[in-house]
Amino acid sequence: MLWALGLYGGPPLLGLPPALTLLALTVMAAAELLRRTAPLAALALALPALALDSCAGTLAATVLMFTDVVYAAVLYGPPAAARRIPVASVLLTVLATAVTAVFWHSPQVVLIGIVIALVTVAPAWTGLIIRDHRDAAQAARLRAEQTALLAEMDRTQAVAGERARMARELHDLVANHLSAIAIHATAAQTLDEPDATRAALGVIRENSVQGLAEMRRLIGLLRDANTTGDGPAATPTLDGLAALVAQARANGAASGLEFVLDDGRGPAGAGTEKPSAPVELAAYRIVQESLTNALKHAAPGEVRVRIAHGAGGALTVTVRSPYADRPGPRAPGSGAGLTGMRERIALLGGEFDAGPEGGPDGSVWLVRAALPATGKGEQR
């Protein structure tokens, strides 16, 4: 329609027929079809089409489509092309303006330079700016997705760690009392002596009350969101080992077990660093679990608990109990005790070992743990 109405830029150059503008328009339209799938090929078609159009009369539609092809080549083309095309458009504009000024001394040369810049420089740099914004937005989305993924991984690890911590605490709180209850309930069922039965029932009641109290305290800590679990009522310390061994002594008297505490730490402030609260809690739980295992599995004899400061201020815990083949444990167990002890020591960066020792017959079951005065991680 533009060609039929004679609405083109000027007379043809070099004696070319004006109908060639329609050929240039057709080639430019074909280039437009390739602007997304093959932007560089589209630009390669558009350049000779624009040159032909400029020589045959210059249709405005062809020039407008050329600007879109340049814009698409920068926006959708490879990164190297996106960097080079804007620079090339500036050089081309300067060169074309300079050549025109050499052969045509007229003030209109400045207007021609502006028109060439609008056709080449403006779409190229517009495409570069939009491409930079698009790449920045995509990078921001990727960072946001990575941050969300890392946050989800942290949340999953935190939940798993909290579940493991709760499992250890529940096991250590309940297993000791329930083992004593099971052992003395079996004794009460098998003994016909009223005094022995009454004593066993007394131990059962005492352990039931203590276990219930500890369970209530733990449930209260879980329900109270403002409680961190570091208070003295919730975190046992090494000062409570004597009471713990005394309780085990009462629970194991009927099984021929004698429990002895050998505290070699020395008086407070005697040149040794006081262990941190997580280390004290871990040491207490290790002794507690070892005494529970002794009540279940140990042969009659002496169970000795020793706690002392080792080299470098490390806190060492050793529990020796008689070890012999038995037809079965005095109370059933889940096998999670040793796993929980290893996890506690690993969290604090210490060393742990448990197994038979003392000769080929394995006459002693030895639990040994070495904990640094200050754990590498905060046990919660």
Main attributes of the structure:
380 residues; alpha+beta; Heat Shock Protein 90; 2 domains; 5-stranded mixed beta sheet; rod-shaped
In short:
This protein is an alpha+beta fold and 380 residues long.
3D architecture notes:
- By secondary structure, the protein is of the alpha+beta class.
- The chain folds into 2 domains: 20-139, no CATH class; 148-371, 2-Layer Sandwich (Heat Shock Protein 90).
- The protein is 61% helix and 11% strand.
- It is built from 10 helices and 5 strands, in the order ααααααααβαββαββ.
- It has a 5-stranded mixed beta sheet, covered by helices on one side.
- A hairpin with a 5-residue loop joins β2 (301-309) and β3.
- α9 packs antiparallel against α10.
- The protein is rod-shaped.
- The relative contact order is 0.07.
- The model is unreliable at 228-233 (pLDDT under 50).
CATH architecture of the largest domain: 2-Layer Sandwich
Q: Tell me, what is the CATH class of the largest domain?
A: Alpha Beta
Could you list the spans in which at least 5 consecutive residues all have pLDDT below 50? 228-233
| Fourth CATH level, the homologous superfamily of the largest domain | Histidine kinase-like ATPase, C-terminal domain
Q: Pairing-aware structural class of the strands and helices?
A: alpha+beta
Strand content: 5-15%
Number of domains: 2
CATH topology of the largest domain: Heat Shock Protein 90
Largest sheet: 5 strands, mixed
What's the overall geometry?
Answer: rod-shaped
Report how far the terminal alpha carbons are from each other: 81 Å
- Summed over residues and divided by their number, the pLDDT gives a mean of 81
Helix and strand string, N-terminal first? HHHHHHHHEHEEHEE
Give the total of beta strands.
5
Specify the number of helices.
10
Q: Name the helicity range.
A: 55-70%
Radius of gyration: 43 Å
Placed side by side, the strands forming the largest sheet appear as 1-2-3-5-4
